[in-house]
Amino acid sequence: MAELIDGKRISKEIKDELKEKVAAYKAQGIEIALAVIQVGQDPASTVYVGNKKKACEYIGIKSVAYELPEETTEEELLEIIDQLNKDDSIYGILVQLPVPKHINEDHIIQAIDPKKDVDGFHPQSVGALSIGQPGFVSCTPAGIIQLLKRSGISIEGKECVVIGRSNIVGKPMSLLLLRENGTVTICHSRTKNLKEVTKRADILVAAVGKPKMIDASYVKEGAVVIDVGIHRNAENKLCGDVDFDSVEKIASAITPVPGGVGPMTIAMLMNNCVEAVEIRNA
After folding, report:
1. Catalytic residue list contains 195
2. Closest to 35 in 3D by CA, of 107, 74, 72, 89
3. For residue 234, what pLDDT is reported?
């Protein structure tokens, strides 16, 4: 039976460390503030935004909320971002995605000052990651690295396979594993003989977006399996991209859904907000 990688415990550990750093900054007269912008009332987005506000409160970061109506124009949203870019009291700007269809997501991401891009989505942040320069890293992949490290799982020299090539998870995940000296393969919808590739993995990261697609037939005995997916099944229960029941029997370690990768994303967002102080002064 696989060891359970407990994202709730590890994320709390990180948030407690950040709480101390925030208190130390406050003692120096620095108050960190995060601006969170939500356009429209997407139910999942509302839950995420609520969780982010709670995390800010827990570690002592000021949260400034902008809850905008669905019909907000791209120009109006860009105007708010421009004001926040110029506001020295704001250390991080986060626009909750997805935005309504009439707003161009790329325009919004690119409008955020890279020194306030706590989501790590700006092309400058992505470019810095790809050439090993300092900058913000996308929160979910950064959280996965922390899950592995804090569970005592070494990445160096390991065969790492990432299933999925999204800009938010798959691509930055592969770059971070590479940075930790893993040997990295990225798989996607056009990959031939997918099972042959995934069965080579010492560390398998599933970010495929299909419920329970990755069963035991994809996994090498003793592999570490990280499940990035989050879905609701027919019984309305949360499940991931990995068929937990079958994979747990052969993996050496596995993340559950919920309680694995999810809590880490918000912990690393908080970490980016705290790092924003150093990035601003770099």
Report:
1. no
2. 89
3. 83
